[in-house]
Amino acid sequence: MGRYLPEYLKSQNRRLVFDILSREREISRAGIVRITGMSFPTVSKAADYLIEKGIAIETEEESPPEGGIGRRSRPIRFNPDAYCAVGMDFEGSTAEIGVVNMAGELLSRERFPFSDFRDKKALSALGSRAKALARKKKTRVLGAGIGFPSNVNPGTRRIVSFGTLGIHEPVSFDELFSPLIKNLSMPFFVENDVNLAAKGELFCRGTEAARSSLVYMTLGTGFGAGIILEGRLWQGQNHKAGEIGNTLAVPAGKAPPIPLENLISAGAINRKFNVTVEDQPLEDERLKKRIIVYLLPYLTAALYNFVYLYDIEQFVFSGSVPRFLGSGLYTALERELSFLMNTRGRSISIVPPSSESPVVTGGASMVFEKMLLDQFQG
């Protein structure tokens, strides 16, 4: 215990200084002392460690002392390209891989056809492409974060369930996708794709939003949600939290209730309105309005319940259906919710994702979260 406590405190000090530096981008040691209340020697040791790792760079310019008293100091500047990470996403019939730096910037990415998780050659090629993309970067790549379209236990790397492959009992991701892992040749982490999108959204919003709460919803072939509560991903007892599409809905005059996503998914919209939901916006304004009017009662009820179950007011809405219907869906949904909430002193925000590749960004953020903590612990 005697050794553990100093090492733990050292890693926490490094993490705190890192968080401040990544938020401020450039700051003096004295500025960090003022923000944290830590002693100057403690801050200097943590800053020197970050400089040694290349995460921070000491600038040549000297800044005047605060209040005009004391020595001039050299600010340190955040170097987000010191480390990068790979993010991986599977969406519909495509796979996307990207390299992301510590500022959440997407440095490079590739998209290509991929639809069969049973295809070992395709899995092997995917691992090779991700490794090749990572090697193009001159900075060190810490690992890969994989967003998988199923319920996953990230701690054990086991798939909890995956209907596409008929998996209803926990199965090892490592064993099932060994061709991908073998060719990837780097440390990796796996998580549900919508959960990673939620983490990616938080990552893109910066450290100031690190303890905020939000719900990231995606509506396409299904309807799922990633739930962030005070900066932490809520996964649930069985790693199935956020399966909002499986909540029950009772259409007017119909019984028994049926799963919500059976009524509002892309497939349901295709059947009801004789259209093909795709990523390109729908041009027929009359049809667009009809679909939005149809979806509003279901979506409004889902978000309203989230607000009162989790005390959350920030929502991110993504997926093929919102992209297909465009800004009109966001406007109508926010208007309906605002009308319901105004008398209750709430202000609801419903916005598109901050990143064009939220799952990829979230995968990278998971790598930084895991690997940098190991780095800070020495």
Automatic annotation (TrEMBL):
Pfam families in UniProt: ROK
InterPro entries from the UniProt entry: ATPase_NBD (IPR043129), ROK (IPR000600), WH-like_DNA-bd_sf (IPR036388), WH_DNA-bd_sf (IPR036390)
Family annotation (Gene3D superfamilies): 3.30.420.40, Winged helix-like DNA-binding domain superfamily/Winged helix DNA-binding domain
The name this protein goes by in its record: ROK family protein
Organism expressing this protein natively: Breznakiella homolactica
